[in-house]
Amino acid sequence: MELRPRSFAGQLKADQLNSLIDALLDQGYRVIAPVKRDAAITLAEIRTSESLPQGWGDEQQPGSFRLTDRGDTEYFGFAVGAGSFKQYLFPSRRKLLDIDRHDMSMTKVEDTEKPLAFLGARACDLDAIAIQDRVFMGSDFVDPFYAKRRNECIIIAVNCHRPSSTCFCTDAGKGPECRSGFDVALTEVGVDDDHRFLVETGSEKGTALVNNLDLEATTEADDAARQEIIDRAVAAMQPALPDTDIPALLKAATESPRWESIAERCLNCANCTLSCPTCFCSGIEDVTDLDGTHAERWQTWSSCFTMDHSYIHGGSIRRIGASRYRQWLTHKMSFWVDQFGMSGCTGCGRCVTWCPVGIDIREELRGFAGDALEATTNEEATA
Ligand code: SF4
Ligand code: SF4
Description:
With about 375 residues, this protein is α+β, with helices and mostly antiparallel strands.
């Protein structure tokens, strides 16, 4: 891969990572970062670098996530975990209104959360946030809750250097190199006494943050060290998606028997949509207390894998699993492009890892492409 000269703001010794976290805390941010929890890596609020999964890696396969204890000093030596930053910008459950019958009041619930700092976002996370920005803020109909949190947040990205076997950001997204969408980007290099982070800035907010840190100058060799890490991550990912026009492929496959074959394995559990960092559907629930004096309106994540999701007067439109999986995959990889001008998939691989029966979006797309090729070959043979 071509070596692109970087403009490093400097380098931060790994044992001074807390100075970055302290700077974020001092500026009033709530710092969200990867942590090890329940035999997996997920996201949580942290106040110190000791909470990061230092020395831990991951092995991901369709339907499987395993932590590996490398025992080294790397802070970010793993791919993406179960959760995504979506859950902070677009929470899975959020109260919208309080309604009180005594004083006939209806009170909108305001967001009182501190500004968020996302530490450890990968290129696929940046891509996913850009996709959700398009959905929630990219039209005349802006979601004010999302927009407030998004505009207030700061993103400290980390270049991925150990992608998992379920990652395919090189094919589907814009990874593994963090190129845009961050305020600060770190590249973790070296070990032991040489363990450090190369620091780049992507915004004025990011520059103001790192100006408060005691950064050391980078050397000429650091460009190459950074590039080597990106190249290693690219090389670790195999081509995953069929080399074809995927939106057109899926539009032509609406009647394919392959949907039934997927549905025979699919549990309709909705894990794929819940773990996906770009899925954005939600529903509204109203609840009241037992005497009917107080009511609340809540927004909750929804999934195209539930019957309720397609319920309109008279029943659900998508009654069978085949139609629900078809809706998910076709929207994500085809109609999303028509709707938003971009694919809904970043290649993060979460839906592959966290599908309990190991349904693999890459394998299914290759299957549809193979079916299309076979149909074309048959047509030409009989012409
Ligand atoms: S569809 Fe799967 S691979 Fe693509 S962004 Fe969603 S979870 Fe990641
Ligand atoms: S995670 Fe797997 S089993 Fe669950 S709904 Fe998605 S494709 Fe089906």
